């Protein structure tokens, strides 16, 4: 009975986890379709056939229905793939999702590092009236526009960062923390010794500092480094800890990530989507043009944490179902 129940349980948890991860990715894809390509959302499709005063054109109907069909096909493909690979364990999937989270965090780290340096150089040249002489008048005027700088400077650097993150396995928390300290130290030196300070200097510190804390959350979760205050958990058995972690991921961790994504990316006026679409920049005209990216930090945080919560969930379920190999892993304190 145990031999048959474990594979059945394994398939259920693998399927549920795959559907959760794919749902997050499809949700982000739907936001891109809705807010960048003006494809109507599912709510408008429901309103079209319901009582709401929503009228969609044939093209809009085809686009929305096409996305729904695509989503269903993705789910069916994943379920069939899982059914045809019973040899894959929960720990295998757990490691895979953890690697995805790690890659996303690495790419984000390299992005804010390169963008921070590039934007600082551009802002310094603007402040000192050197940008026209270095880049030419036309390019200098383009660099003064947040949208142009975002599309032609920031976005290419993000692509470069994704390539670097693919080959580099280091997450770089230590050097990013060091850079934050050095950037702040530079402000102190320039202010009190040279009496020189500009808005972009403080923006750079906030930019890197926010990235350091938000992007490191998923890595700290898997390493068990988050601060906890408890008088019960530490004394529980290994299996009881696995139950606590499993329930916590399902009832607290994943719902938190979904709350951030759904509330922050619901409409074009939502707190996360609006700054990203409008390439929102610092209130100071001579600060960094990266404020919209700081809104995207929360998206990266929610997605990377969701991936890691799914990974964490599977590793703890592996302990509960006595999966082979689970006895050698420690239950992370959650």
A few lines on this structure:
By secondary structure, this protein is mostly helical. It is built from 12 helices and no strands.
Supply the key terms:
334 residues, 74% helix
3D structure, described in words:
The two termini are 32 Å apart. Helices cover 74% and strands 0% of the residues. The model has no long low-confidence stretch (mean pLDDT 84). The protein has helices spanning 2-35, 42-49, 58-83, 90-127, 131-135, 137-143, 146-167, 173-192, 199-222, 238-264, 273-277, 291-320. It has 334 residues and is mostly helical. α1 runs antiparallel to α12, α4 (90-127) packs antiparallel against α9 (199-222) and α10 (238-264) runs antiparallel to α12 (291-320).
What are the SSEs and their pairings?
Elements: H1 2-35, H2 42-49, H3 58-83, H4 90-127, H5 131-135, H6 137-143, H7 146-167, H8 173-192, H9 199-222, H10 238-264, H11 273-277, H12 291-320
